[in-house]
Amino acid sequence: METQVKQSTDIKSLSKLKVWIKRIGVVGFIFFLVKGLVWLAIFLGVGRLF
Question: Could you write out the DSSP letters of every residue in 5-50?
Answer without folding.
Answer: HHHHHHHHHHHHHHHHHHHHHHHHHHHHHHHHHHHHHHHHHHHHH-
